[in-house]
Amino acid sequence: MRIALFGPPGAGKGTQAERLVKEHDLTHISTGDLLRAAMKNETEVGKKAKEYVTAGDLVPDEIVRELAEDAIAEHGYDDYVLDGYPRTVRQAEWLTSFLDEHDAPLDAVILIEVADEQIVERLSRRRVHKETGENYHLDHRPPPPDVHESLVIQREDDRPEAVRKRLEVYHDETSPVIDYYRGNDAFFEIDGVGNFETVFGRIEAVLEEATPAQVTDANMAY
Ligand code: AMP
């Protein structure tokens, strides 16, 4: 199964992707995680990406394209959930062609919708485990007591200024990707408001409906 999760920052893509991974034995491919790892390891990509990520801007398309395509290839072009890619129409077009070339188109593109006000609230209360990258929410999913507080941090791009920037970028650059996929039978929209299990149930329902191999260049609406 080849799935792309799509939606604004803080829509829950990462946590839902983790659950899909466990439930369906998939690989989680998150360009955000790949970039954070590259930054932590101070690789060339990490150094180039840092200023964009910290400011809440998009990293140039060419850089993330390579990260995403390499990861998909590494995992044999199948059984993955993409999280945070594609984020521009250019990335989406590249992805469709890349997957078509390997005869492995996406089975489902799922948009998780959450309103801006809720995003700001969620991200201001989000914390992450410095080492494992696990996400917490101070009210709804607090860090367990055995995790020392020095390990629980706020992502630099979850600070209010960067969140505002990320939302602006989402509306300007990423929303057009919705129009790119809309109209395709493999595109689904779900309500991302509700508790984790409820939203996961909506994703599972959509996956039951999805039939294989539908996002191909041949049946794009453009
Ligand atoms: P995320 O963890 O998905 O919220 O991503 C964190 C940050 O990484 C984003 O705010 C961007 O700066 C960068 N990023 C992740 N995925 C992409 C992408 N597909 N295109 C451009 N930048 C990305």
Q: What report would you give on this structure?
A:
Helix 2 (31-40) crosses helix 3, helix 4 runs parallel beside helix 5 (89-101) and helix 6 (116-124) crosses helix 7. The chain is globular. It has a single domain (2-114, 174-220), classed as Rossmann fold (3-Layer(aba) Sandwich), CATH 3.40.50.300. It has 8 helices and 8 strands. Strand 5 and strand 6 form a beta hairpin. It has 222 residues and is an alpha/beta fold. The protein has helices at 13-24, 31-40, 44-55, 61-74, 89-101, 116-124, 160-181, 196-209, and strands at residues 2-6, 27-30, 80-83, 108-113, 126-129, 135-137, 152-153, 187-191. The chain binds adenosine monophosphate.
